Amino acid sequence: MTAIDSGNLRPTLRASGLKDLGEIQSLYRKMTVESGDPLSSLQPNDALVDWKLKRLRQDLLAEERYICAVAESEQVIIGYAAGVVVTRGSVFAVETTGLLAEVYVEASWRRQGIARQLTQMVLDAFAGRGIHWVEATVPEGVSSAEELAGRLGFRKNTRSFLVNLTETNDE
């Protein structure tokens, strides 16, 4: 995949399909490296991780649970936003929500509203399926991601707690 400088070009935005998964995975790999993802150090075999993630996306697409929009210029994907339809069951109810999981735009294309447009396409697809609540995970300390989430109507909540099972808790 070759990055294209934005110049005066306007990207085309569209829903993604199976044929796009390889380029999406390449952008995902680039995103995790740029963001300094602490989990990337736990992945000893990049090729295996890439294959597993591509396979997961294929399965979710087949189940119609993976919603992804891409931006492309000159037939090269320069950004994407992806979400997953999540169904959780409890004693009281079955809840279907959306999870906005990934948003990435190549550096030379940023600050043009592309991430916002891609994300809005995913949110519109969730709404079209009758989903009322969408959760977004934002890397801690990435102010541009926090600002984008805020502009799209997301608000911080205190509903979730996380635990890292690879760390020992001596308390």
Topology:
Blueprint (H helix, E strand, L loop, with lengths): L11 E4 L5 H14 L11 H17 L3 E8 L2 E14 L4 E12 L8 H15 L5 E3 L6 H9 L20
Parallel strand pairs: 4-5
Antiparallel strand pairs: 1-2, 2-3, 3-4
Q: What do these coordinates show?
A:
There is one protein chain. The chain is 32% helix and 24% strand. The mean pLDDT is 82. The protein starts with 11 loop residues before the first strand and ends in a 20-residue tail after the last helix. The radius of gyration is 17 Å and the shape is globular. The protein has 171 residues and is an alpha+beta fold. The protein is built from 4 helices and 5 strands. Helix 1 crosses helix 2 (46-62). Strands 1-2-3-4-5 form a 5-stranded mixed β-sheet, sandwiched between helices. The protein has one domain (12-151): 3-Layer(aba) Sandwich (Aminopeptidase), CATH 3.40.630.30.
CATH-assigned fold name: Aminopeptidase
Silhouette: globular
Strand content: 15-25%
What low-confidence regions span 5 or more consecutive residues with pLDDT below 50?
none
How many structural domains in the coordinates? 1
Q: Share of helix among residues?
A: 25-40%
Strand numbers in spatial order across the main sheet:
1-2-3-4-5
In short:
This protein is α+β, with helices and mostly antiparallel strands. It has four helices and five strands.
Keywords:
alpha+beta; five-stranded mixed sheet; globular; 171 residues; Aminopeptidase; 5 strands
